[in-house]
Amino acid sequence: MLLSDTIIAIATPPGVGALGIIRIAGPKAFELVDHFFIGADLLKADSHTIHFGVIQNEDEDPIDECLTFLFRAPNSYTGDDIIEISCHGSSYVLQAVIEIFLRQGVRLAKPGEFTMRAFLNGKMDLSQAEAVADLIASDSKSAHDLAIRQMRGGISEEISKLRQELIDFAALIELELDFGEEDVEFADRKKLQELIYKIRKYIQQLLQSFQLGNAIKQGVSTVIAGRPNAGKSTLLNALLNEERAIVTEIPGTTRDTVEEILNIKGVSFRLIDTAGIREARDQVEAIGVERTIASIATSQILVYVFDVTQITPQDVHIDIRSLRRENQAVLVVANKMDLNPYTKPEKFQLEQIPIITTSAKNRMNIEYLKESLYKLVIEEEVQEDSTIVSNLRHVGALQNADASLDAVLSGIDKYVTHDFIAMDIRQALHHLGEITGEIHTDDLLDSIFSRFCIGK
Amino acid sequence: MLLSDTIIAIATPPGVGALGIIRIAGPKAFELVDHFFIGADLLKADSHTIHFGVIQNEDEDPIDECLTFLFRAPNSYTGDDIIEISCHGSSYVLQAVIEIFLRQGVRLAKPGEFTMRAFLNGKMDLSQAEAVADLIASDSKSAHDLAIRQMRGGISEEISKLRQELIDFAALIELELDFGEEDVEFADRKKLQELIYKIRKYIQQLLQSFQLGNAIKQGVSTVIAGRPNAGKSTLLNALLNEERAIVTEIPGTTRDTVEEILNIKGVSFRLIDTAGIREARDQVEAIGVERTIASIATSQILVYVFDVTQITPQDVHIDIRSLRRENQAVLVVANKMDLNPYTKPEKFQLEQIPIITTSAKNRMNIEYLKESLYKLVIEEEVQEDSTIVSNLRHVGALQNADASLDAVLSGIDKYVTHDFIAMDIRQALHHLGEITGEIHTDDLLDSIFSRFCIGK
């Protein structure tokens, strides 16, 4: 992919709309658009100005009345010369305009190629570029906030700063290498250790934030399980406040898993209703139970529901112990409290697992249940400006950097030779640099930007 | 719908894309956007300039980094102050931005409301506004060309000119009324007649162009019919150059109708393959034959196909006479010429209906058949600048205007009193004015603009 190419793409979603935008970026953008645009002399026009006119093809047939938005390098999204052509939102028109420029040798942009150019031209770092894709994909307030924060700086700034401090040390240590046999130390080992402690502490914070970050970005998978007729589907409906799952009084009504999105204070919970766990009476039911087990295995939160009028504390404990994955967050819901209001929830208590008493039918305590779900994920109030990592690639790089820094520390402890310490520092710098893209490979860029949409 | 409201809408198609545009128009557009936009002082900025910044909500949370495109009244699409906000193409972001302004009392625009304002503010006439919707809906070159021509002036200019001439006469005749009993004639009756002849001739041309205009806009419904195993499906595939219909050697393979779009020189033909016409052997086949008859009844062109090795000229004539609708354009295709290359097509000739010899299997003469189909619709070369009417509403108004003008002429012939002539002229002026919108009612505007998309 050449930065010197002029590239073009439709930047608006496919389909019929009022407006459709074509984006053309690269050294020939102005010359070519000006040639086919009647209405203003774009070559002489200022950056950040708008011009009304007609795009016509090679035969001077008018294709559309449109606006051109001019952005001159370097003051544009990509850093290149860019023109955006705002056409009527007809696929035919957009295609016809694009084809004019393709015939002039302009190349169709690949997914994310505009943003990749922005990165390569230094308009944003790699983690900011990734946030652009996250922002476009965001569908809840918290996912949006996370993406915006990352796009506007996020972890990049702090990591770049720490990395620069580490680079300064690396330079000093490498200088020591030049002196070979002489036993000089330009780099203060104690200060280096302190810096590394600081960096590792920051890395640990970031790694700890990943669970939350990932939950915010992907939604939190939450499985509702329990014995037949415990009221799981009624509970799902109460949470969603709509009649989504089929509810009957016949045990075993829910045979397939049902997935719904519940938004609690901006965090998406992907709720999975399941078939009741019991000895299956027929093959269809057996498959349902199997899927329930599978759903629990892949979910972050298990909501175990039981009917307070039907089941002993021992049964509840057996069920939870057999269903729960290791380290899985669990909420226990004592349902149908309306039928037996004097039930003491304490007697069902297992370890520290919270128990919530509800009557799903009467929507009793449903808001409290929602609140409890939220707290399982967001344990404390998220600080407005706290930094949260939501990207698996960043986690990998942070873990690698942390391992390299650990090697540096133990190298210092064991008085290993300068060159090994220098190597480990370089390794840590490499991994930290991967996050912001100061270090990158073509393969990495391909894998990041190929997930973008066309035109971005 | 108040022109003084400030209105807002998403102007790009729904879905995920690189960009999403929000359009806000009306007297408060600048003041409100400026309040929530950090990055430039929009109140002091020039029209037709672009500004980068951040949209934030009432709590100063950043919602998106975006561009604002400024258009100051009257130099905008609607004639109002307009700001277009170019956001990242996430539904969540667009919704969040829109909601900020809705909370400030901005109203969601109705479908076509921006264009309606453009019309009401005199930025375009009604037939041009209608062409905007046609342009957005256009999906073939000729439909696009038609819409662009109408949008850029089309019939409006000529009709406005002729109407103005007629208004001048009407004024003179109404002046005569003021003189009551006195027998004065300010309006030269001969010149009035000449003007009306001229207008009616133009109206006739326009009315004649409608069949073509409508064909271009809607596509030409073309039914392929004939006896079983005449090769209809093979012919359809040959025309489309793909294996669309299921072809076998068993007569009666096609049981349902199949519809495909064939584009010939920019005109869309909606080709309908049908079941073979014959005594049905079972109920499914009977339904197929019934549908064939129904398809023929609603199609503009009948392509009758027969197998030259299987059928007599008498059979061909019987079939065509029984199938053809009155005044329906017909093409006869003598197929399977490869099996009987010495067949003389003349012997199958019925009246002036053109016969084309083909071998659908070998794609022989398929291009010629396409050419013949095209000529059935576009009888002569369409002049680059000829005016074509494609809008049924315009046809109705032209017919009404023509009837009123006819009444004026016969009134002059019969020496009816001035006031009746004046009334008929006013009536003609009214109908001509309906086309360009010089005369309009709220109901008419509602019915036109409600078919637009939101944001246009």
Under CATH, the topology of the largest domain in chain A is which?
Rossmann fold
Biggest interface, and residues per chain?
A-B, 54 and 54 residues
Structural class of chain A: alpha/beta
Give me the side-by-side strand order of the main sheet of chain A: 3-4-5-6-2-1-7
Distance between the termini of chain A: 15 Å
Shape of chain A: flat
Tell me the CATH superfamily of the largest domain in chain A. Answer: P-loop containing nucleotide triphosphate hydrolases
**Total number of β-strand segments of chain A?**
13
Question: Could you tell me the mean pLDDT of chain A?
Answer: 88
Please provide the ordered H/E string of secondary-structure elements of chain A: EEHEEEEHEHHHHHEHEEHEHEEHHHH
Q: Summarize the amount of helix of chain A as a percent range.
A: 40-55%
As an assembly, this protein is: homodimer
CATH architecture identity of the largest domain in chain A: 3-Layer(aba) Sandwich
Low-confidence parts of chain A:
none
Residues in β-strands, percent of chain A: 15-25%
Q: Describe the biggest sheet of chain A?
A: 7 strands, mixed
Tell me the Rg of chain A in angstroms.
29 Å
Tell me, what is the CATH class of the largest domain in chain A? Alpha Beta
Query: How many helix segments of chain A?
Result: 14
The number of domains of chain A = 3
